[in-house]
Protein: Dynamin-related protein 3A-like
Amino acid sequence: MADEAVPSASQSPSSTSSAPPLGHSVIPIVNKLQDIFAQLGSQSTIELPQVAVVGSQSSGKSSVLEALVGRDFLPRGSEICTRRPLVLQLLQTKRKPDGTEEEYGEFLHLPGKRFFDFSEIRREIQAETEREAGGNKGVSDKQIRLKIFSPNVLDITLVDLPGITKVPVGDQPSDIEARIRTMIMSYIRTPSCLILAVTPANSDLANSDALQIAGNADPDGHRTIGIITKLDIMDRGTDARNLLLGKVIPLRLGYVGVVNRSQEDIMLNRSIKDALVAEEKFFRSRPVYNGLADRCGVPQLAKKLNQILVQHIKTVLPGLKSRISSTLVSVAKEHASYGEITESKAGQGALLLNILSKYSEAFSSMVEGKNEEMSTLELSGGARIHYIFQSIFVKSLEGVDPCEDLTDDDVRISIQNATGTRSALFAPEVPFEVLVRRQIARLLDPSLQCARFIYDELIKISHRCLVNELQRFPVLRKRMDEVIGNFLREGLQPSETMIGHIIEMEMDYINTSHPNFIGGSKAVEIAKQQLPKVSLPLSRQKDGLEPDKVPTSERSVKSRAMLARQANGVVSDQGVRPVADVEKVASSGNTSGSSWGISSIFGGNDNRTSGKESFINKSFSEPVHSLEQSVSIIQLREPPSVLRPTENQSEEEAIEIIAIKLLLRSYYDIVRKNIEDCVPKAIMHFLVNHTKRELHNVFIKKLYRENLFEEMLQEPEEVAMKRKRTRETLRVLQQAFRVIIS
Structure:
């Protein structure tokens, strides 16, 4: 009785005609795709159009599905019955020529076996559920796939999901509600899934679990159809008219009301045919439902579901075809990257040679910026090398002031140390050379650091080459990394040696004749302009006179004496010499006032015959009293261990300091530009380009050996598993693509 056919249960009046049923062209396509992708299980990433049935426990979901099929075939009970997702495909068939009907079911896990007895279908569902979820109310997310072939159904695909429960029973975990909700959301959150939200009429619609979880997945209500069950057991004096009209909680796809078989009807084996007749009688006997014929009854629900599903499939089908096509290309590429297993030595040698050649080409392409997989999110390959040269190395050198760690006292000490035991007549060249060499030497460390940066970048580039192809050969990958690492280190050494030579060349020859060098005369001229126009006090005044009371002739002598270093050397600590001595010194020294400094920098006369020396020699050549008559009463103090110049700085020293710093900056800029140009060239020649030219030859020399083939081309088990999995996925996608374009 329970398995009796129901010719009119879910069939529209016109379905018996020769016209093809609604959705006959598109729903079978989706059904085939579902069967194909079911082979991949949870690995499938393609979202197919489907209708998911959600609701709380005992809301009447199973009764609705059985009414759509017209058969009793689902597990029943007062507790949770649906414990695994049941994918139910309803497929309309034609009646036989003699008018008889053939209805049967098929499970995907039992291919080729037809179940004509629907009670056996129920038992198989129960057995398959217990095999996966256990026999004590456990829940599993692994699907059961069932096809129902019947002339009394419309083409619909439904997914019956476990009912939402609050209290765990049996073997159910304490968080059973959260787990079931997570399972339901994994189906209904995808835009390709329609939601059939089942709510009993004898409960408050505002508290419906089905509508609440559907609202989370479909907040705009574009994909949700409301099903109001158990209309016949509502409280007396109440009805569901406003619910069906969407006046309580509106849904864009509307509501359909149905009358379920009661548990008593099921126990008495009341057929679904009789239940549908009773349902029709119920709606006709209730005037409140007049005008709502398209929203009442299981036949209308089947028709509405079929129409909505067909339209939904037509909407998503173009995008589905595009996703299958793009996924097919991606998986085919991944499968190709795993290659095929090669056993022969000749095949292994050819494979290894091909990998080494492709690796060398990929390395060069990444350095030259010709890589096909060029990133659009960040700089990579050769662009990073150029960035290091120009934005890190060059800009860092340009930001250095050669005099930032050089104080005026440092320059004064250098000048005085360069004079040795004698006072200098001119500003010596030695301090300039000593100081400029010190600044040039500072360029060595950043230059070597730049070479190390480029070495690190080349290592990174080597790690990005043929990543997918070499995944299957970890031993070969390791050997190649060792070879290229050693090769790059060998290239780094001559680069660093050349950089050291470049710095040494700059230090060994200070080219003060360089056309861009400022020169001594120009430096002195600028120094005098920069010197503050403040008169420096003399250490001792002559004859106790105030400076403004000294005769004009003597003041002029003082001025010449203070600037004596421009002509003669160091200012004496013994005060201003007599006019006659000064004139004598001036007449015997260099008479050119513009010859400040030595010829190589300052362009002056290199006449070192000093009038001061004559004056000193003359003073000490005078007669000296005998030792007995000249007993000394003057006690000299010992010189300190560390001697520094006096705090008072003369005008001449100020000019010298400014001039030396100007010369340092001028020559440092010349050297810096040379270094900025030569160091990148040295690195490119000895390290980068040398690696590009010789990498393939080095690989052949180090790795292409027949006794190493088997070891280096050994695959790990996980790669073999990935190859097998991608091969299966590729086969499934190819089947799906043929179905969708046919």
